[in-house]
Amino acid sequence: MRSIVLSGIRQLEIREEPLPVIQNDTDVLIRMGAVGVCGSDIHYYETGRIGTQVVEFPFRIGHECSGTVEEVGSAVRRVQPGDTVAVDPAVSCGQCDQCLSGRPHTCRNLRFLGNPGELDGCLAEYLVMPEASCYPVNTEMSLANAAFVEPLSIGVYAAELMDAAKAEKIAVLGSGPIGLSVLGSALARGVEKAYVTDKINDRLQVASIAGAKWTGNPDETDVVSDIREQELLLDAVFECCGEQDALDQAIQLLKPGGELLIVGIPEPNRISFDINDLRHKEITIKNVRRQNDCVRPAIQLIEQGKIDTDLLITHQYDFETTADAYDLVSGYRDGVVKATIMFE
């Protein structure tokens, strides 16, 4: 089968690899249909690392994917050959203290698609995953939308972590695929007003269509002053771009007793806060680690038409032009929100 590997910084190559085979009775062989390009993939593409996770070249990246079931192990019951599936890229052990306490997303033995030292990524024509990672979708859902279930599930989880009883007015700082997934998920949970920022105006237009009450570009306006002119202060702020400036803005925007939910992945290993503001307001900080049992709810939001993922999937490429997709996303060009590699 053909696969695409990262062979060096900003270097992607098509290679031939053996076809993966079912080894366990709970395995599922999937023919890839679509793979989304994620911001974490771009970190590996541009720098070869995220924090302590360092790529050893060559390495196959990619973790947002969907496909068609080709073959199943003898114990598989959730899916059958011919099913279209969205894939959860996380494989937990099911036996450690985290898994047993309902936190498989922080499993002590977690393996994740496209993470160095864990599992090869999904940029290949075929992939074997355990049944627990395979979620069937209805026949009307496109493969591209099924691949978007993975980032959407993070948005669903982030919105679930918010204290919904208190949160009527929120901000989402950074309106890339994750930020827009948070926006849609929060609105679906009943948030009344959402203020959204980004440095790319095309993305702000998408956020407005998706339901944001107000949008602003921090390079063009003082977003804190603009939002404060409309609201006393906000109940919750989702930081979705991994930028220190956005973290500072979040603290300024939050009311006393408000919540800061950190969803974005900062490039440096350390971030900081003004402890005076943090302490006086008694701000609660929550870190969002991927998602926890939110794949099915994400699928339901798409199937029920509550989130329009077609609006968020702005670019599609075929397998042979994957490098062009990575260049597009890494350069934030052409108003890209989500670029997807299509295999079919």
Search tags:
344 residues; alpha/beta; Quinone Oxidoreductase, Chain A, domain 1; Rossmann fold; 2 domains; 6-stranded parallel β-sheet; 12 helices; globular
Tell me briefly what this model is.
The protein has 344 residues and is α/β, with parallel strands linked by helices. It has helices at residues 39-47, 97-100, 143-147, 149-161, 177-188, 201-209, 223-228, 244-253, 275-281, 295-303, 309-312, 322-330; strands spanning 2-8, 11-16, 27-36, 49-50, 53-54, 64-72, 84-87, 90-91, 111-112, 126-130, 134-136, 169-173, 193-197, 214-216, 234-239, 254-262, 284-287, 313-318, 338-342.
Structural notes for this entry:
The chain folds into 2 domains: about 1-145 and about 310-340, Medium-chain alcohol dehydrogenases, catalytic domain (Quinone Oxidoreductase, Chain A, domain 1, Alpha-Beta Complex), CATH 3.90.180; about 155-285, 3-Layer(aba) Sandwich (Rossmann fold). It is globular, with a radius of gyration of 20 Å. The protein contains 12 helices and 19 strands. The relative contact order is 0.15. The mean pLDDT is about 95. With about 350 residues, it is of the alpha/beta class. The two termini are about 15 Å apart. α6 links the parallel β13 (about 195) and β14 (about 215). It has helices spanning about 40-45, 95-100, 145, 150-160, 175-190, 200-210, 225-230, 245-255, 275-280, 295-305, 310, 320-330, and strands at about 1-10, 10-15, 25-35, 50, 55, 65-70, 85, 90, 110, 125-130, 135, 170-175, 195, 215, 235-240, 255-260, 285, 315-320, 340. The strands form 5 sheets. Strands 3, 6, 7, 10, 11, 18 and 19 form a 7-stranded mixed β-sheet that branches.
